[in-house]
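User: quick one, fold this
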Amino acid sequence: MADEFPPTAPAAAPGATPAAGELRLGPSGTGKRLVLLHGWGSDADDLLELGPLLVGAGVEIVALQAPWPHPAGSGRQWYDLQQSEWPQLPEARLALRTRLEQLGRETPLENTVVLGFSQGAAMAIDVISSDGGLPCAGLIGCSGYPHPQWQPNAAKPSAVLLTHGIHDPVVPFAASEALQKQLEEGGHLSQLLRFEGGHTIDQGLFPAMRDFIAAQWPQS
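Assistant:
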């Protein structure tokens, strides 16, 4: 992702033992977690510094790394976009579900908000909101798109926030409009925030994203 966020210097969680393919920031065992899923050709580092800009010091941040190397030779991918009909998608879907369920043994998924960018957004939306999805507290999809044959599961509605640049040259803005329509038809509460820009996460939307995340935590 080409974003340049304000410089941050968050410390790693004391005593944290991240699994292979993930990075962590913030304190563990707080009961609140933000999970980040990067886009095609990036890696877990790409979104990590975004986390502290969206959540307070009492929230653990986990950035997951996609399983396969990108065909360009650097970065990672959740599945190969260049292969016709995306044959890796079913395996990628199952792998992400397994990883989120494993994280849910530490912090309940009901206390977990997932944010994905581009291909990471498509993966998050698919795994969390489709039939047999996961009971995450909330979902943010930035510059995402719907997978073929994806349908949201009305039995497990979750709050979804979508963001997308209206001049996105990589994933058309219409992709998020289609996502929002399908989510609402499936009974999910959804909001689409547009901005004047391209394939990125707009800093001007950070306040709205912070408010959305804060509203998803279970009330004590």
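User: anything notable?
Assistant: Strands lie at 22-25, 33-37, 60-64, 68-69, 76-77, 112-117, 138-142, 159-165, 190-195.
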